[in-house]
């Protein structure tokens, strides 16, 4: 503890920088780092090494090897490089390795050395070759900038959505710039390059010369430039050993430093913490590392080995053959607590807690001191914050213990910050573990978010750890566990050496009914790997049949898709499958399939009714559904056919079909209709007027109304219209004509099968009381009263009713008795009633 | 016996939310096509649309002119055309012809098709076949629930009945499931579910799937409605076939209530023009007589008129101040009531006139005889006479169906096609839907079935049998009627003024079967003990109950019951259940129907007409 600040190096008056070891690397590097192309992803990402690059020329026959390691040096992948010469390597934000080849092709590899895709940077690049390339990160994703042999720049700001932009020419540029970099400002990517003593800024429209304000004179060339992690700051290293530091907009100078070393540095990167006022740049030469900032003195380290710098959000990672270290500015909280002789509340609290453990009364003294100043809350917060910035679990623990100790003396200290810090540290320590090898700092972790960290664990196929973290942090299943399980399953289906059954079972066992897991997605992945059978097995687990169908169709399992679609109850889905099937199968097979699926069949029939009448007919034909076939032709006889011959023919076909269907009744009716049609045609020809399409009844009525009584009767006989109906028909028609004479003749032609009450009714309807009365007298006794009432002869009705001694009739008449006129009748009835009751 | 608001009745959920939801969505869709546009509306959608967004709202969102979608070339000159249609193939062809003629004329316009309540793949396919899929943009207006009244929601899908029960087309079931899902997201989950019928079961299962897919939303919500009961129309055709004698039903039978409003012609308004009247609980006069048996309505109305007169008369002897008060506060209400009263009196007169002309009493008597199953011969001859007189084919068909169902297919009267050839198809439709059965068709069917099952595997045979079962559906009305005691035993005159049971909606002669089933199941909280009835209804596989934990449901919500009629319900059934709710334990029924129907609509849906 006493030597805790031993690795702290002051820079100027206010800031300390410390460097500590993250891992001792146990990668077995055969080559020196300087002989390799190196790329390390930020946020503790993986390291890619491409050995034996081509520029060395010494063993051109040997194929180079591409190795990928975790940050702790664990090998992740190793593959022989079989493509063209590579100019530059870089990691995208999704931790995909981008390898820029000399011919401008960019090959994309996954973390495990799996080839993903490739794209080209355009024809111009292909022709002029690539001189140099940079991979940079923007808010949209990862970009690639290329310097071609013709000294032109081409860039794409987002490789996920590739849009190539060729930057304007730099006037008078004859040789390669001494140094250049991609800048990202206001969501636009620029190129800053140095040619001799001049600096140029290239945007997509123009090339403009820029001068950094306050640059010391005598600069003849810029050797190195560095942009900070957030693109806010820029550092320039000149051939005079002078370093200029300012804003990336080149509008403001922050500070300058003269290191008096004229040798070009190997690497120069910014080392600053978010929200810190301190600006510092780390410059690396072959054997020397220098931290310079706004101070007359710099911090110097000796490098024992070839090292490589990786800029991070809040510091710099430095790795070499044997170690991996982190250099950063000591955060304020840590500085306050651990600075020698610090009297900050946090420092006192830490001290108090230690004394307390020693059971010394000094603990009380320290506590009192803090409390007297009223700084206990602040002290606790400081300890919690400082714990976050510590790398060593021991130190984290003692700080947290101090915080927890301090909390006891506070009434109302919200526990969230303490609890969350404990959880976060636990997660961080887990992923920092040697085996996992993601050395994230607390600030990086917060910037990256837990979701992205989980994604990265999934990417490394560290499923169990990811799930444990989800469970530990109690993340909602949909965001956490089930997402990871789905990824796991997608990975699992790619394991070609395991049998379909085993994979399907294993996946189902793990996933079960976890909400948010889409079995169809996993199945789609399986199908993508060429494992159709597995995909079908997996689809069986998919609870939503709607999700199963599209994939089944894609896999050409249309019949299965059809039954699944029907199960889903979604008719649209069924229809989609049907049309698919229709195109896929020949007509016969298609109909057979339909036949076994009544629901699909009726759906398709509905469609055919409107859109494909012929198909409908074929459908019925194939099913030998003569009944429906008959109906179909009947419909055609009045809907589709215009000419009378066509209509009769359609009816004939219909009648045949009905016979086949053993529906004699319908067949007979159809034949009648044919006869009627022909007859109507003849009537039209002979009598004129409109007969076609009238019903039989209306035809007869029309004939009577037209005075063709003979014809009407003939027709009625031909078509065997029942007597009763004919009488009704004639009665109404003649009454409509008001041909009372004919009506009377008709009524006397024979005994009416419908009685004579209808005659009375109809006449009354035509308001002919006189005629009505004629018939009323002929109405049979049981309906006499009604008839008399109809013609309004209440008195006589009453007489008849009394005669009949029928109670119902009596009351009926009584109900018709109105007011004074029928008063006498009413009395009569009442009397009759009374008499009847007496008896 | 008016149904005034009862103090003990549970409060109904606020369904106006559904209207607002639909309106907002429509406006959003209209705004998707910025600028002036002409709107083509399908005739069927006009009345429902009117209830959601009137012309001025449409104008506010830059709808220029309104056209009806009909088979005529459109004369619109607007550069943007918007079509609001049901997802029907015929509409697609209309749109296609319009777009294609524009193309021929070298004209480019913007077209947008809004499908209500949802689009179907078949429609998109027709657009594609016609080669205009790329020229139009398609959208859905998920407007599936129209609150016609405080307790009545209608999907306004009359075609549901024909599509499902006749053509076996199941696509609307999904729409129903989605509507139920919407209800449960808005008004909380339903703790108790019951249902009967094949369609009810399918709709229920689809709905459950939807809920499972999107769970989390409804969880934790307190249920507002305690029970839901789904019922297929084909469980009970009889009730729907009967003539209605409750006022609201009678108005529907006579004047046709369309989308909650009715056009009263000159003979009712006693002026020279027709009047469109909204019929719902807001019409105070109507609200008091809607559930009344018609015989009471006149008495009630005249009483009301006397009261009104008395209130008018209060004017006399008022001083100036009272008079001022009266004019400013009461007069308007009285005037309004006066207007409504005279309308309904007019309607009653008109109904009376029509009904007496066709010998309504005879008709009712025959219907009752059929329901009770006596004097079959007399009824048959009445029906024959009805046919002979050729009064109205629809009416004759209805009576024949009623006879056929109640007498279990023993229709003795001869079927006749003398109405025209298309009615041959109508008969076959009626037979297919199970509304009409000829003598002993069951035997031939079973013979076919047994032959078929010998030929194919068991599974396929099962399916075919399923398909046949709808054809072979034999009505067991008489037995059911006995089991459920549908024909009340009456000692003396049934007092329609003080009804004892739901039979009052049919003059005390018959308790609606559908309502009786609902009553029985709710009483038992399950189908237990009703096995025999369910078997007789041919619904053994399709009767279900589903109870979830009771603890969450408040006692208030358990008094609310949502009844879902798949294929339509009649006003008589609504009145009967309203009565039941009032009578039995202070409950309240809410109705959701695919459309309000009556016997005539039922028959028309089955008829083949010349296009």
Automatic annotation (TrEMBL), chain A:
Keywords for this entry?
Answer: Coiled coil, Endosome, Lysosome, Membrane, Protein transport, Transport
Coiled-coil stretches, from where to where?
349-376
Q: Which Gene3D superfamilies match?
A: Vps16, C-terminal region
Which is one Pfam family of this protein? Answer: Vps16_N
Q: Does the keyword Transport apply?
A: yes
What is the recorded membrane topology of this protein? Peripheral membrane protein
Picking any one GO biological process from the record gives:
vacuole fusion, non-autophagic
Localization? Late endosome membrane; Lysosome membrane
The Vps16 N-terminal domain extends over 4-420
Q: Please tell me one Gene Ontology term that the record gives under cellular component.
A: lysosomal membrane
GO molecular-function terms, A-Z: actin binding
The yes or no answer to whether the keyword Coiled coil is present is yes
Write down the superkingdom of origin: Eukaryota
Indicate the segments forming the Vps16 C-terminal domain, all copies.
Answer: 517-835
Instruction: Tell me the protein family, please.
Output: Belongs to the VPS16 family.
* Subunit-level organization: Core component of at least two putative endosomal tethering complexes, the homotypic fusion and vacuole protein sorting (HOPS) complex and the class C core vacuole/endosome tethering (CORVET) complex. Their common core is composed of the class C Vps proteins VPS11, VPS16, VPS18 and VPS33A, which in HOPS further associates with VPS39 and VPS41 and in CORVET with VPS8 and TGFBRAP1. Interacts with RAB5C. Interacts with STX17, MON1B. Associates with adapter protein complex 3 (AP-3) and clathrin:AP-3 complexes.
> What biological function has been recorded for the protein in this entry?
Plays a role in vesicle-mediated protein trafficking to lysosomal compartments including the endocytic membrane transport and autophagic pathways. Believed to act as a core component of the putative HOPS and CORVET endosomal tethering complexes.
Q: What is this protein's name?
A: Vacuolar protein sorting-associated protein 16 homolog
Question: What organism does the record attribute this protein to?
Answer: Gorilla gorilla gorilla (Western lowland gorilla)
Gene field: VPS16
TrEMBL record, chain B:
User: What InterPro entries does UniProt report for this protein, alphabetically?
Assistant: Sec-1-like_dom1, Sec-1-like_dom3a, Sec1-like, Sec1-like_dom2, Sec1-like_sf, VPS33_dom3b
Look up the record and report any one GO term of the cellular component aspect: clathrin-coated vesicle
Q: Which domain of life is it from?
A: Eukaryota
Q: What Gene3D superfamilies is this protein classified in?
A: 1.25.40.850, 3.40.50.1910, 3.40.50.2060, Syntaxin Binding Protein 1, Chain A, domain 2
Q: What keywords are annotated for this sequence in UniProt? A: Acetylation, Cytoplasmic vesicle, Endosome, Lysosome, Membrane, Phosphoprotein, Protein transport, Transport
Family to which this protein belongs: Belongs to the STXBP/unc-18/SEC1 family.
- What is the designated name of this protein? Vacuolar protein sorting-associated protein 33B
């Amino acid at each position: 503890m006493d030597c805790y600040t031993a690795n702290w190096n002051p820079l100027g008056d206010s800031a300390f920088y410390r460097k500590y070891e993250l891992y001792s690397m146990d990668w077995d590097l055969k080559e020196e780092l300087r002989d390799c192309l190196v790329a390390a992803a930020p946020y503790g990402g993986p390291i890619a090494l491409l050995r034996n690059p081509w520029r060395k020329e010494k063993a051109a026959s040997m194929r180079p090897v591409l190795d990928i390691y975790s940050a702790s040096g664990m090998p992740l992948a190793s593959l022989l490089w079989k493509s063209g010469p590579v100019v530059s390597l870089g990691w995208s934000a999704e931790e995909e390795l981008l390898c820029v080849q000399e011919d401008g092709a960019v090959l994309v590899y996954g973390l495990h050395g799996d080839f993903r895709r490739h794209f080209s940077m355009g024809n111009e690049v292909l022709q002029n070759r690539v001189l140099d390339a940079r991979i940079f990160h923007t808010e949209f994703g990862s970009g690639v900038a290329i310097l071609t042999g013709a000294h032109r720049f081409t860039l794409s700001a987002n490789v996920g959505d590739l849009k190539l932009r060729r930057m304007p020419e730099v006037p008078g540029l004859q040789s390669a710039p001494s140094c250049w970099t991609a800048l990202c400002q206001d969501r636009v990517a620029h190129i800053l390059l140095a040619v001799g003593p001049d600096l140029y800024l290239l945007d997509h429209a123009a090339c403009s010369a820029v001068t950094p304000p306050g640059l010391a004179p005598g600069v003849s060339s810029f050797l190195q430039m560095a942009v900070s992690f957030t693109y806010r700051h820029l550092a320039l290293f000149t051939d005079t050993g002078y370093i200029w530091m300012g804003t990336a907009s080149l509008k403001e100078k922050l500070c300058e430093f003269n290191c008096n070393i004229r040798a070009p540095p190997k690497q120069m990167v910014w080392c600053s913490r978010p929200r810190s006022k301190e600006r510092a740049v780390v410059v690396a030469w072959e054997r020397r590392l220098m931290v310079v900032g706004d101070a007359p003195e710099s911090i110097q380290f000796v490098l024992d080995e070839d090292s490589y710098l990786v800029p991070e959000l809040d510091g710099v990672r430095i790795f070499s053959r044997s170690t991996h270290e982190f250099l950063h500015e000591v955060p304020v909280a840590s500085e306050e607590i651990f600075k020698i002789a610090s009297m900050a509340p946090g420092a006192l609290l830490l001290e108090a807690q230690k004394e307390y453990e020693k059971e010394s009364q000094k603990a009380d003294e320290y506590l009192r001191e803090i409390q007297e100043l009223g700084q206990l809350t602040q002290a606790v917060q400081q300890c919690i914050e400082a714990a976050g910035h510590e790398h060593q679990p021991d130190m984290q623990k003692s700080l947290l213990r101090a915080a927890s100790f301090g909390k006891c003396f506070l009434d109302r200290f919200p526990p969230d910050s303490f609890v969350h810090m404990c959880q976060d540290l636990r997660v961080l320590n887990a992923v920092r573990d040697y085996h996992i090898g993601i050395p994230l700092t607390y600030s990086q972790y917060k910037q990256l978010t837990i979701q992205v960290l989980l994604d990265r664990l999934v990417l490394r196929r560290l499923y169990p750890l990811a799930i444990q973290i989800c469970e530990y942090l109690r993340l909602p299943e949909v965001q956490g566990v089930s997402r990871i399980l789905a990824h796991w399953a997608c990975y699992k289906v790619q394991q070609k050496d395991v049998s379909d059954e085993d994979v399907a079972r294993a996946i189902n066992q793990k996933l079960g009914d976890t909400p948010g897991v889409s079995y169809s997605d996993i199945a789609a992945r399986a199908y993508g790997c060429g494992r159709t059978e597995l995909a079908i097995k997996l689809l069986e687990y998919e609870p939503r049949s709607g999700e199963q169908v599209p994939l089944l169709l894609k896999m050409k399992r249309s019949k299965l898709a059809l039954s699944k679609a029907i199960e889903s109850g979604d008719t649209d889905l069924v229809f989609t499958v049907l049309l698919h099937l229709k195109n896929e199968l020949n007509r016969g097979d298609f109909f057979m399939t339909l036949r076994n699926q009544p629901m699909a069949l009726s759906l398709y029939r509905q469609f055919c009714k409107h859109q494909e009448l012929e198909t409908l007919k074929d459908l019925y034909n194939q099913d030998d559904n003569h009944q429906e076939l008959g109906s179909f032709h009947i419909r055609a006889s009045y809907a589709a056919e215009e000419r009378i011959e066509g209509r009769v023919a359609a009816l004939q076909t219909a009648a045949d079909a009905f016979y086949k269907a053993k529906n004699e009744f319908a067949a007979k009716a159809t034949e009648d209709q044919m006869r009627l049609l022909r007859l109507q045609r003849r009537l039209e020809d002979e009598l004129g007027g409109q007969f076609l399409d009238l019903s039989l009844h209306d035809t007869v009525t029309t004939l009577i109304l037209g005075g063709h009584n003979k014809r009407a009767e003939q027709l009625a006989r031909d078509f065997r219209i029942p007597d009763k109906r004919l009488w009704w028909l004639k009665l109404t028609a003649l009454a409509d004509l008001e041909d009372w004479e004919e009506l009377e003749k008709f009524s006397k032609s024979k005994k009416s099968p419908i009685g004579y009450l209808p005659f009375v009714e109809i006449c009354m309807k035509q308001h002919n009381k006189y005629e009505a009365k004629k018939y009323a007298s002929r109405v049979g006794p049981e309906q006499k009263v009604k008839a008399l009432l109809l013609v309004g002869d209440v008195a006589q009705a009453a007489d008849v009713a009394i005669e009949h001694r029928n109670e119902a009739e009596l009351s009926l008449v009584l109900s018709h008795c109105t007011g004074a006129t029928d008063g006498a009748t009413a009395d009569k009835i009442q009397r009759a009633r009374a008499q009847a009751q007496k008896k | 016996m008016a149904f005034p608001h009862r103090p003990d009745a549970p409060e109904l959920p606020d369904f106006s939310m559904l209207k607002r939801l639909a309106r907002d969505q429509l406006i959003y869709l209209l705004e998707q096509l910025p600028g002036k546009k002409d709107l083509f509306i399908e005739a069927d959608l006009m009345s429902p649309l009117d209830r959601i967004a009137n012309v001025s709202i449409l104008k506010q969102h830059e709808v220029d002119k309104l056209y009806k979608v009909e088979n005529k070339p459109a004369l619109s000159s607007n550069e943007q055309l918007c079509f609001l249609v049901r997802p029907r193939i015929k509409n697609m062809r209309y749109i296609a012809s319009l777009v294609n003629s524009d193309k021929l004329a070298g004209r480019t316009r913007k077209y947008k098709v809004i499908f209500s309540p949802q689009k179907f793949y078949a429609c998109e396919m027709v657009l594609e076949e016609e080669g205009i899929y790329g020229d139009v943009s398609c959208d859905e207006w998920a407007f599936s629930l129209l609150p016609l009244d405080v307790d009545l929601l209608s999907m306004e899908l009359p075609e549901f009945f024909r599509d499902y029960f006749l053509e076996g087309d199941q696509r609307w079931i999904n729409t129903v499931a989605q509507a139920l899902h919407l209800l449960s997201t808005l008004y909380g989950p339903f703790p108790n579910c019951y249902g009967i019928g094949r369609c009810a079961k399918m709709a229920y299962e689809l709905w459950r799937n939807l809920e499972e897919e999107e769970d989390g939303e409804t969880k934790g919500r307190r249920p507002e409605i305690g029970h839901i009961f789904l019922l297929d129309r084909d469980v009970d055709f009889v009730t729907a076939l009967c003539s209605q004698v409750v006022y609201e039903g009678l108005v529907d039978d006579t004047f046709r209530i369309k989308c909650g409003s009715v056009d009263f012609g000159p003979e009712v308004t006693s002026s020279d023009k027709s009047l469109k009247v909204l019929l719902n609980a807001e019409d105070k006069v109507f609200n008091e007589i809607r559930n009344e048996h018609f015989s009471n309505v006149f008495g009630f109305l005249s009483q009301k008129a006397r009261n009104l007169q008395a209130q008018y008369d209060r004017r006399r002897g008022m001083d100036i101040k009272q008079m001022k008060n009266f004019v400013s506060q009461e007069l308007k209400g009285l005037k309004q009531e006066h207007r409504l009263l005279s309308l309904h009196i007019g309607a009653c007169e008109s109904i009376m006139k029509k009904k007496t002309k066709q010998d309504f009493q005879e008709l009712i008597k025959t219907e009752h005889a059929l329901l009770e199953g006596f004097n079959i011969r007399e009824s048959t001859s009445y029906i024959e006479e009805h046919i002979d007189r050729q009064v109205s084919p629809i009416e004759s068909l209805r009576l024949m169906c009623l006879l056929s169902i109640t007498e279990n297919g023993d229709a003795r009267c001869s079927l006749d096609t003398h109405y025209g050839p298309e009615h041959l198809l109508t008969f076959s439709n009626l037979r297919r839907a199970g509304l009409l059965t000829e003598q002993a068709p069951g035997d031939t069917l079973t013979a076919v079935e047994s032959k078929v099952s010998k030929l194919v595997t068991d599974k396929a045979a099962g399916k075919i049998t399923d398909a046949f079962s709808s054809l072979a559906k034999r009505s067991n009305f008489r037995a059911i009627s006995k089991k459920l005691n549908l024909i009340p035993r009456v000692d003396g005159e049934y007092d329609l003024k003080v009804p004892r049971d739901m039979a009052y909606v049919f003059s005390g002669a018959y308790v609606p079967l559908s309502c009786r089933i609902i009553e029985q199941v709710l009483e038992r909280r399950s189908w237990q003990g009703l096995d025999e009835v369910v078997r007789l209804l041919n619904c053994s596989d399709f009767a279900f109950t589903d109870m979830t934990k009771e603890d969450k449901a408040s006692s208030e919500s358990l008094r609310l019951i949502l009844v879902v009629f798949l294929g339509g319900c009649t006003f008589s059934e609504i009145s009967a259940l309203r009565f039941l709710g009032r009578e039995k334990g202070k409950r309240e029924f809410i109705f959701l129907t695919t459309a309000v129907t009556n016997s005539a609509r039922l028959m028309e849906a089955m008829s083949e007409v010349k296009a």
